[in-house]
Amino acid sequence: MNANVINQPQALAWIDGQVVAAAEARIPLEDRGVVFSEAAYEVLLARGARLYETERHLARFERSLRGVGIDASVVLPLAAKALGALSERAVQGVTALAYLHATGGWAPREHLPQRDPTPALYATWRAIPAGRVQAIPGPGIALHSLTDFRWQRSTWKTTQLLGAVQAKRQARDAGADEALFVGTDGQVLEASTQNVFMVRDGEILTPPLSLNLLPGVTRALILEVWPAGVSERGFTLAELREADEIFLASTTRSVLAVTRLDGKPVAGGEVGPVSRYLAALMSAHLLEALGPERE
């Protein structure tokens, strides 16, 4: 096992107003998030006690809560308390992922209980190995395309992630690292857990959010920091196969270059200059916001 993993601080959870070891945390069996997937979540990147792009993440969290029908006025103050309590236990220089999970609360198992239960908020804080979110594309990854079979509310960040799990399994079985959802009309949508970008003739394109996509925070940042601008315009899988470069973007992996698509190399099968430049740009953004990472 990697020594980096062995030396990680203990994973923590915030539940019922208390910070406990994540392995000891328990939630009610009839929590509506468990039995009905009535839940929304958000993930934030942290280094030490410093959180990355908190305002953007919490704004998206609120949007997801309202979409699912969970009272944001109850959940958001709890989220602030949870993040505050967990960040107090953070180790300086150690990068972590902070997950917020809000559910419809506990109630006897009925689709519509006679009285709405109080929403619940659970949070975890888990350290990740140094360098994992360093916005460096490395040698690139392989992408496997498949027809989108998810529900039509992917713009909300909910815990209904069975589609993403199944897609990743199909990608793995095909010898790829990540799955790419494509509409029945051939329009490229997004990867199972990341937004997708294409470079063609020096122009960067990404599918518009109107196509039932998750509004990624890293996606929004790239749209802001790329000096030449990014075109939010749809493109087909056939067009993507002719791209000069493909890369993915997410909070947990930042910028990730794609060098193979459906078993064939993208362009020459090497990480392209735009992907490398954006990776360096996002690395600098992370460093400025969070400070240096402990090795």
Describe this structure in words.
There is one protein chain. The chain is an alpha+beta fold. The chain has 2 domains: 3-127, D-amino Acid Aminotransferase, Chain A, domain 1, CATH 3.30.470.10; 141-290, D-amino Acid Aminotransferase, subunit A, domain 2 (D-amino Acid Aminotransferase, Chain A, domain 2, Alpha-Beta Barrel), CATH 3.20.10.10. 28% of the residues lie in helices and 27% in strands. The protein is built from 8 helices and 15 strands. The protein has helices at residues 3-6, 32-36, 54-68, 72-87, 162-173, 217-225, 237-240, 273-290; strands at residues 12-15, 18-21, 39-47, 50-51, 95-103, 120-127, 141-147, 178-182, 188-191, 195-200, 203-206, 230-232, 245-250, 254-261, 264-265. Strands 7, 8, 9, 10, 11, 12, 13, 14 and 15 form a 9-stranded mixed beta sheet that branches. It has a 6-stranded antiparallel beta sheet with strand order 2-1-6-5-3-4.
